[in-house]
Amino acid sequence: MLDKLSSAIKKATDKIANAVFLDKTLVDGIVKELQRALIEADVNVSLVLEITKKIKQAALDERIKGIEKREHLIKLLHDELLGILGESREIKLGKKNTFMMLGLYGAGKTTTISKLALYYSKRGHKVAAIGLDVHRPAASDQLKQLGERSNFAVFIDKEEKDPIKIWKKYEKELSKYDLILVDTAGRDSLDDALISEIKAISKIANPTETFLVLQADIGQAAQKQARVFKEAVQITGVIITRMDSTAKAGGALTACHEAKVPVIFIGTGEKPHDLEHFEPESFLSRLLGMGDLKSLMEKIQSLDSEKLKQSQKNIQEGKLTLRDVQAQLESAESIGGMEKIMSMMPGLGKAREKITDAQLEQQQKKMKNYKNAINSMTEEEINNPELLEKQTTRIQRIAKGAGVSTTDIRALIKQYKMLQDLVKNQSAMSSGKIDQKTLMKMARKFGKKGMRI
To answer: How far is the CA of 337 from the CAs of 62, 119, 294, 376, in angstroms?
Structure first.
């Protein structure tokens, strides 16, 4: 997301940090690059000029000298960018919670409900959704399908056309849940009929939070929508969707801050796990190529499946099967693949820049092939991969069943054996059962071959 802006900010900070002298020509060049990138990201022009004016003034201030000036400029750039992103607001759930979702047609309210349901159910909450969009014919069916896919309760009535009656019908049943997610109708614009309807729903549902859902590519128009919805129904926060599919998301983010409505969550993809709590500091850290370990750990914790737990236990004990390898591959895929993991890992921002999209795509394909191959194996083969080396007919059968080449299967076995050695040696090291000679041998082996899963 916002790749051009990210690249321009990193270039600007590098130029400032490495400059021997910050003369007018260099400063003008940095300022122009920043202005172009911020405007392309759809940040308000007057806001862009205000930020770059401050940076220019500080850069040419003769009272600040040498290294101190460079540090001052980098901090000023960081603080100004953080300022336009707004402040973080954490949602703390009580015993009973109701989130009401608002937004115009196509904003992604229903899909966002399924992401919120998964996000909070993974954190131990009992979640249900109720469909009160009585105008869009497919709304109820979509919500029901998403509920079945992500395993949360859904209450709908396809025949009833009064949202208040639907709420009253299921009110007693809904009281059994910690969190109720309310899907409401949209319109092409915020008209009187929509305001009247959502006010009536708000009055009877009494939501603890009222979220406006906006798509990222709406840009600066987000400011008007956020302000009008806030005046009409007192929204408490914004959820921005499609952050991954536009270079203009900066407009929506900054516009919400200008409208004095905090961004609570951002949607970063199409998968159910692709929802993040918006923290400006972490978001900016990722833009600067410094990673976002907190969000990565949050995503890992949300996976917390029994299969992954058992896999981690086996690794700690120095045991490893192909089923454990599969669990690790699936968890990486759920987080968002290698690209997302690299963007969140501190120190890997610059490494990512050196890897082409084609190389990354090839790596993703390789991981997918490994996963398909493991799915085509018998339990005996998964637990004892050595059988595959002894009986090559097994390799041919697996390759055919998985739709991959025999070379892929052999590469998987080779990587598995290297991982197995590493896991065994790690376990031995932690228990003090490995000598110096073995340690040196292991270092030479892995230094030469490298690990390329």
So the answer is: 48, 18, 17, 22
Q: Is 273 a member of any domain?
A: yes
303 with 259, same domain? no
pLDDT bracket for residue 309 (50, 70, 90): low
Task: Examine the fold and report which residue of 60, 85, 110 is the final residue of a domain before the chain moves on.
Answer: 85
Residue 244 tokens read as 């991954």
Examine the fold and report which residue of 242, 258, 287 is the final residue of a domain before the chain moves on: 287
Same domain, 344 and 266: no
- Residues 128 and 230 both lie in one domain: yes
Q: What's the pLDDT score for residue 307?
A: 53
**Contact indicator for 266, 215 with CB cutoff of 8 Å:** no
Query: What span, in angstroms and rounded, lies between the C-alpha atoms of 23 and 16?
Result: 11
pLDDT in tens, 132-156: 999 988 999 999 999 999 899 999 9
Higher-confidence residue of 315 and 12: namely 12
What distance in Å separates the CA atoms of residue 372 and residue 46, rounded to the nearest whole number?
A: 52
Query: Are 177 and 209 part of one and the same domain?
Result: yes
Q: Among residues 242, 237, 286, which one has the least CA distance to residue 259?
A: 237
Annotate 190-238 with DSSP letters as a single string: --HHHHHHHHHHHHHH--SEEEEEEEGGGTTHHHHHHHHHHHHH---EE
* CATH code (residue 365): 1.10.260.30
Q: What is the pTM of this model?
A: 0.65
The SS3 call for residue 150 is helix
CA distance 117 to 177: 12
Q: How far is Cα 240 from Cα 225, in angstroms, rounded to an integer?
A: 12
Residue 246, token pair as written in the block: 């536009």
The answer on 107 and 57 residing in a single domain is: no
Burial tier of 440 (Cβ tally within 10 Å: 0-12, 13-18, 19+):
exposed
Q: Which two tokens stand for residue 425?
A: 């040696």
**Reported confidence tier of residue 165, pLDDT bands at 50, 70, 90:** very high
Question: Which tops the pLDDT comparison, 358 or 236?
Answer: 236
Give the DSSP H or E segment for 181.
Answer: strand 179-183
Does 265 lie in the same domain as 159?
yes
CA distance 157 to 171: 13
How many CB atoms sit inside 10 A of residue 35's CB?
A: 17
Nearest CA to 252 out of 278, 216, 226, 211 is that of: 216
Which of 98 and 48 is assigned the larger pLDDT?
Answer: 98
Same domain, 440 and 318: yes
Domain range for 441: 297-449
Tokens of 214: 């906006």
Structure tokens, 434: 């490995």
Helix axes 3-18, 24-40, angle to 10 degrees: 170
* Same domain (yes/no): 267, 329: no
Angle at 144 between CA 143 and CA 146, to 5 degrees: 65
